[in-house]
Write a structure and sequence with these properties.
The structure is a homodimer. Chain A is built from nine helices and eleven strands. The first copy, chain A, is an alpha/beta fold. Chain A has helices at about 10-15, 20-25, 35-40, 60-70, 100-115, 130-140, 150-155, 195-200, 220-230; strands at about 25-30, 45-50, 60, 75-80, 90-95, 120, 145-150, 165, 175, 185-190, 205-210. Chain A folds into two domains: about 10-80, 60s Ribosomal Protein L30, Chain: A; about 90-230, Alpha/beta knot, CATH 3.40.1280.10. The interface between A and B is medium-sized, with 32 and 32 residues.
Chain lengths: ~230, ~230
């Protein structure tokens, strides 16, 4: 049982609460038995820690758990996972331009996973996906998606055999009339500002979702509707 | 210009940051010029307050604004609105059973407004809709929907001429095969637990959204997809 706050492993794990250190180490933390089980099943778990003595977990004291989890709420299990980065693309891909809200990012991961968008391209300005709020709201979808960080202005033009659609609240083809493609990329933009002007410039076609009385949908909802309609 | 934190109006407004007082007074606060303009246009605004001297606003000091808005972030405009409660039902209604996340509630309001669900029934355990986070994420949709608080066990059986669908991640009719009805009610359940057992018992039919590899969607996304598909 680890009890010392000065333990090197404890110090290491605690530092993983910053995006910078996660990126450097290519490791991140997950909370709760459900996620730990899922990560273990998928071979992504390196070590798990628990307040209780149990199989497959290193036992730690309450003070150590609090230091690792960096939160005041009671966490009983925590897991150390490795990030997996692959460069291969699925046939349907979701391309995110500065999605900033952790809840939206998590919801988009769940929908992407459910509707066959197994690759997500993270453009500049997106929230760090290994942030605890994103992981919590992704409900395990984070383990099943291949994430690629990219500069969208450079990356989108390389997708030569993909049909690429942006989203626009005014212009574009009505979603009901858009046909699915074998290779398809959907671009979603920032919560407040939509797709950035530089990215908009390189996208030739847009989808819009017909709405009454409303200027726009929540981006997580809009993405969910489009991916449901154009399933991979 | 109001400068005193002891001013009776300032004290009154500040108390509206609690759900209990909002309910008693049937008044709530909104933040930002965009929402104030919208509320004024719709006749729901009683008074507006601003840090700057300008038409249509009562000027207040920075300290007063901070006391009213109950936040550390800088708010420049705030509005006092009255709650409107009507008992008439739209032909498509959204029925919410213990939706607790403010972001999900706001996103559901936006989708409901966009897809013609002009009445939302709020069952027990739902987050207070006049909570500042809900209002912010509803993006003005809160002004355009008729909300009714009800005990769902008692209320749903009164909807005799409505087709009522619950949502279920396993059982039910695939959304693609569900036909729209002239009068339709969609029931969505709690983020963690789904529709409560007591409410489930009185619902005869369920919709499910086909998914790969995923246990469930975010409830705001699931609601958005269903309302998009079965527009009012």
């Amino acid at each position: 049982m680890i009890e010392s706050l000065e333990n090197q492993k404890v110090k290491y794990l605690s530092k993983l609460n910053t995006a910078k250190y996660r990126k450097k180490e290519k490791r991140f933390l997950i909370e709760g038995k459900h996620l730990v089980d899922e990560a273990r099943k998928l071979g992504l778990l390196e070590e798990a820690f628990s307040l209780d003595y149990k199989d497959g977990y290193t036992q730690v004291s309450k003070a150590v758990m609090q230091k690792i989890s960096n939160t005041d709420t009671v966490v009983t299990e925590i897991g150390l996972c490795k990030m997996i980065e692959k460069s291969d693309l699925s046939d349907h891909i979701l391309i995110l331009d500065a999605i900033q809200d952790p809840g939206n990012m998590g919801a988009l991961m769940r929908s992407a996973c459910a509707f066959g968008y197994k690759t997500i391209i993270l453009g500049n300005g997106c929230v760090d996906i290994y942030n605890d709020k994103v992981i919590r709201s992704s409900q395990g979808a984070i383990f099943k998606i291949n994430f690629i960080n990219a500069n969208l202005n450079e990356f989108i033009p390389t997708l030569k055999d993909y049909k690429i659609y942006g989203t626009d609240v005014i212009n574009g083809e009505e979603l009901d009339n858009v046909k699915n493609s074998f290779k398809l990329g959907i671009v979603l933009g920032n919560e407040g500002n939509g797709i950035s002007p530089e990215v908009k410039e390189i996208i030739k076609e847009n989808i819009y979702i017909p709405m009454d009385n409303t200027e726009s949908l929540n981006v997580g909802v809009a993405g969910g509707i489009i991916m449901y309609k154009l399933r991979g």
